[in-house]
Here is the input.
Amino acid sequence: MAKLWGGRFSKNTNELVDVFNASIEFDKRLYHEDVRGSIAHAKMLGKCGIIPQEDVTEIVAGLEAILKDIEAGNFSFEVALEDIHMNIEARLTERIGAAGARLHTARSRNDQVALDMHMYMKREIVEIAELLVKFEESLLAVAKKHNKTLMPGYTHLQRAQPITFAHHLLAYFNMLQRDFRRLEGVWAGADMMPLGAGAIAGTTFPIDRFAVAEELNFGTVYANSMDAVSDRDYVIEFLSFAATLMMHLSRLSEEICLWSSTEFGFIELDDAFATGSSMMPQKKNPDIAELVRGKTGRVYGHLQAMLVTAKGLPLTYNKDLQEDKEGFFDAVDTIKFSLAVYSEMIATMTVNVEAMEQAVSKDFSNATDLADYLVRKGLPFRQAHEVVGKCVAYAITNGKFLPEISLEEYQKFSDLFEADLLEILIPENCVAARVSYGGPAFSENEKQFAMGDEIIKKQEVKLEDLRKKI
Ligand code: ARG
Here is the structure.
């Protein structure tokens, strides 16, 4: 097949080169953006008097027909035509002749691919933000149901202090809010319009880059042609966002795996979100959580790969930059899937309230509360810590927990202990008393639920705005 750039060549490319060089297998997913971008470019060329208006009409109609063909599955993508840009342009010229051949005036694939990627990213950001909000809603809904569900909070995976399941889930809700904020930051980088940078140094034609930006709903225009074609910061920022989001999902996955083990027994995943073993009939495995945890490594890899790809590149475009796509696309697919499946998995799991409460009543997670009790009776905290440490050691030696030790026994450790200490040790009271801002007290979490609802409302307003800008 004749190359669109074949003029200065006297031989066909080697077959291996064709395959190795081509990106069509993966960049065909940019077809919609490529068509839309080309239509905007053609209109601008017409408006600026660079190509005749009749050509614009033909180009627009031709591109719209090609879009329909692609969507109907009636378009055959040719490896010999390298990438989505040349596949579409070649087909256009085949259909409409000379007008099609004028489309690439004042444009290079370098600024064209950058435009497509920016547009595609903006669209995906909106879809990902929608999924993020959905997952937040799902977490918040489960949290609201479990404001009274006590469980041990862990540090070092050792029982630390009593909390509620709601408080635990709200921690993830907070992480996701930061993810949303980071995604807004990614938007800023994606919302810059690169077209008109040409291959590297702009163009001699009287183009209007701002008209293209307006037509395509871009907030800003790249101010330097060389930066416009070599920038991949926006991809790196996206992947960094994706890596952080996956890290959060991976930490939750680890907890889901632990909680659904027989040893914990805190939750049971719905049958629709678990899998069995081909050999062991009794097994119910948290494969989805494990896969999300596993895929996190892949997304980290994409971030690392893009950083390394970009680090040694002289300005401006180098073919290395074609490598920005597969990792980015894979990260998009991975986070969208992970968020979607998590929203439902969390909403449908069974929470074993009794197992959680049992765990928190048969442990020493109330020891800090006993120390705080002594502090309120006037003992400096450091000494109170020491006294309660001795009580704990005594209890362990005698095979008891703190509520099972008698007042007389306690008074051997400190005469500040009085009959009211038992109240302090009840896990529900431990939680209720932790009213410091951001603490797990039931009353505090009630406030957090209301704030959560507000946050989601605000995010939805932002989303509504972003939808208009894609
Ligand atoms: N397929 C290429 C890419 O994704 C498009 C830009 C190619 N530009 C060039 N001068 N070879 O990066």
